[in-house]
Amino acid sequence: VEEWVHEELVRQAQRGDAEAFDSLARMTGDRCLAIAVRILRETDPAQDAVQAALITAWTQLRALRDPSRFEPWLHRILTNECYAEARRRKRWSEGLRILPVADAYGPDDYLTVDDRDLLERAFRRLTVQQRAVLVFHHYLGLSISEVAARTGLPVGTAKSRLHHATRALRASIEADARATPPSQERLA
Amino acid sequence: MTASRDPDRLIHHFLLEGEEQLQDQVFDAIRADIEQKRQRVYFGPWRTPIMNKFIAFGLGAAAVAAVLLLGSRFLGSATRIGGPGVEPTPTAEASVAEPSSPADGSLPEGSHILSDDGVPITVTISAPGWYGERAGGVLAKNNNGNAPDGAGIIVFAAKADAYVYGDPCQWSTTTPDTPATTVDQLVAALAAQASRDASAPVDITVGGYAGKSITLHVPDDAVFSDCDQTEFRTLIMGPDGARYHQDPGQIDKLWVLDVDGDLVVIDAGYYADTPRNVLDEIEAIVESATLNVN
């Protein structure tokens, strides 16, 4: 029933019904934010990316051929907005030291504080494109072909990017772990 | 130590942490913004990118490059109606006077260049509410090609080989090995296409060139999502790509012409509920076509 409602809202929105699109935005916005925060590693630019993505989705909605594919289609727009947001922010945010988002939201018992800081630093060293494939694969649990669809990559490229991102992340963690005594690795 | 543990599991747990709720004020801002923004109008897409298989047919490297260039320009303009487009390079046909567009983005009444690659085609639009881009190859009435009452026209005029799928739903496995090279071959293949309830071909003349017209139907109970790549396709012609359909119940009248040895297809898509006056406008547009052979 939920899928049917979802598709019907897309069809209504494609006919210009702003109320229907508002409902769609509220059904999908939280997940979009979760993705964007994890790709961009900061809340404010993530909110900006989600807002831009949903507005773009509204203006381009009539190009969506299959209403059941609304969310994957939206995520692809969101990915591009994240890339654009990362480019915009890069100029002035480079060199800033930012508290990891994990400190404020739902710590996981599996991770220690040291783990979290190592991963945060390692994650930030990845390109935003590498982060995107990791988020879609590890956070949303999507298959490689679905990751490819959401990032606009050929399946082989998505697979390769995921492999390299994981390898780079691991190498970065290992390098940090070797270089930094655990008690001194807090970001400030 | 972190590095000694399963990295996939670490990444997974790390990504589970983080904000997951968009603030209400962002939703409110989005709502306020979309109330002010018009949705871009799309018609189709009626065409899809050319398959590598077709590029391979007898084309050398230089020709392939030319086809790709042409294809990318065609697709860019054909799939997005009413949006900003790249200014085309002036050609001999660009001298056709095209008055400024109405404020709603529709085409002004008057002469309109429908195609400037392959066989250039110019038509006269004599009614309001037609949308399209210069040389985009597609016209749409009220920017709507969808059921139950949309209508539009697409032209295939790229001097390319034409392949008619044996089955428009299972098209990927029913593509013929050889192209149709004459009007009769192309129309016969269309008439034989599975599930199309084709009309009997009729002799016609458009712009002084002889050919045949035929009307095809997409079954009302067609399920596009069951088709190859969820597309219900009629044919594929060179860099223009494939004609694939918008909705079940779509009716297509095709004018197939022999323009000095090159096949040109003008395809008008509509529905049972498309108003009669729109069908008359389509006929008038096609009848007005002039085909300029280079």
Distance between the termini of chain B: 73 Å
Order of helices and strands of chain B: HHHHEEEEEEHEEEEEEHE
Determine Rg of chain A (CA atoms, Å). 18 Å
Radius of gyration of chain B: 22 Å
H-E order of chain A? HHHHHHHH
DSSP strand count of chain A: 0
Biggest sheet of chain A, open or closed, and with what strands and sense?
none
The number of strands of chain B is 13
Q: What share of the residues of chain A lie within helices?
A: over 70%
Number of helices of chain A: 8
Question: What key phrases describe this protein's structure?
Answer:
heterodimer; A: mainly alpha; disordered C terminus; B: 294 residues; alpha+beta; three-stranded antiparallel β-sheet; 23% strand; globular
Report on this model:
The complex is a heterodimer of chains A (188) and B (294). Chain A is mainly alpha-helical and 188 residues long. Helices cover 72% and strands 0% of the residues of chain A. Chain B has 294 residues and is α+β, with helices and mostly antiparallel strands. Helix content of chain B is 23%, strand content 23%. In chain B, the strands form 3 sheets. A 7-stranded antiparallel β-sheet of chain B has the order 3-4-5-12-11-8-7, with helices on both faces. Chain B has a 3-stranded antiparallel β-sheet with strand order 1-2-13, covered by helices on one side. Chain B has a 3-stranded antiparallel β-sheet with strand order 6-9-10, with helices on one face. Chains A and B meet through α2, α3, α5, α6 and α8 of A and α1 and α2 of B.
Give the topology, please.
The complex is a heterodimer of chains A (188) and B (294).
Chain A lengths: L1 H13 L3 H23 L2 H18 L9 H24 L19 H13 L2 H12 L4 H8 L3 H25 L9
Chain B lengths: L6 H10 L7 H13 L15 H4 L5 H18 L31 E6 L5 E5 L4 E2 L6 E4 L10 E5 L5 E3 L18 H10 L9 E5 L2 E9 L15 E5 L4 E3 L6 E9 L2 E9 L5 H12 L2 E2 L3
Antiparallel strand pairs in B: 1-2, 2-13, 3-4, 4-5, 5-12, 6-9, 7-8, 8-11, 9-10, 11-12
